[in-house]
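Box 4.2: Ligand-aware structure prediction
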Amino acid sequence: EKGNYRHFMEKEIHDQPEGCQRTIAAYVDTLTDRTAVPGGLDFKAIERIQIVACGTSYIAGMMGKYLIEKLADLPVDVEIASEFRYREPALNAGSLAIAMSQSGETADTLAALRYCQAKGMKSAAIVNTVESTIAREVDVIWPIHCGPEIGVASTKAFTAQVSVLTALAVAAARARGRIDEAEEQRLVRVLLEAPRLIAESIQLEDAVRGIAVEVAKARDVLYLGRGPMYPLSLEGALKLKEISYIHAEGYAAGELKHGPIALVDEHTPIVILAPFDSYFEKSASNMSEVMARGGQVVFITDPDGERHAPAGARVVVTAPRCDPLIAPLVMSAPIQLLAYHVALQKGADVDQPRNLAKSVTVE
Ligand code: F6R
């Protein structure tokens, strides 16, 4: 039940430290600080990974690509299931198919999974419902342990999916000899810190509420990010569209000058997601470009990013400092809370947005 919260979505945002903690605990061994991925799959024997999914699960899959390719040097393709299933993609039997689906019942994701299996691929599923159709049909089930998600807009399932993918990336990196045992242990300890840091970033709710009053007046909002903050910018835009009915787009920040910069004016808030990582300087220069054209920037960063912000940066949300491995988890709460408080400002029904269903079992 909702307890003291007004909406399931609000409760589920606040449930994330616990949901991620329980999920991470199922993928690591806290006695040895090593990864312990259930299912006994040999990551050395896998040539490629093909992730298929829809909506927020697709965006989580994209985050998985960024994490797994960088850490484990294992190629990952991610595709929207409804496109994948009909376009006759070329596949290789040595690839592993991963169906990402909170419900485990999404029709297009199930069909895309069956397509992969028919090509002789081994399969796995990252699901919240282990009794679901998708879970029943795969070789390996990788559950998330965030508890049932009731709000139509996915929040805690997203961060739990990303938690699993982060653990898989570390495990694959170790299995493929890309990192040694000491580095695996360091990364596992970083991952185990994530729940506490997510809890800290949820504390930004008051700051975000103030910003939401301004954002709620907009007709369009742009979200920009680089590296793992690019998928997160897609997720921020999707959340805002779904529950506040404000048109929003997520873009790779480097794409700004290839089109979207034409949209920048004083009426269009630009949310820039940029912790102080190896991409920061580039994102900061995009921020300056936006400000030079009168754009209102909402800058979501960390303490070092705030210190190095270009002059004139006004609206800043400062998430806790963390290792880049877990930045996608720590930076999720601010964008979810922004969408939530903008929707409240607009009086929208957050848990039951118009035209949307929790589980899409028709194509
Ligand atoms: C967005 C959202 C949807 C789902 C999508 C896939 O907030 O919840 O985009 O992510 O319908 O659902 P599952 O993960 O159940 O396959």
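In the box above, the bound molecule is fructose -6-phosphate. The two ends are 31 Å apart (CA to CA).
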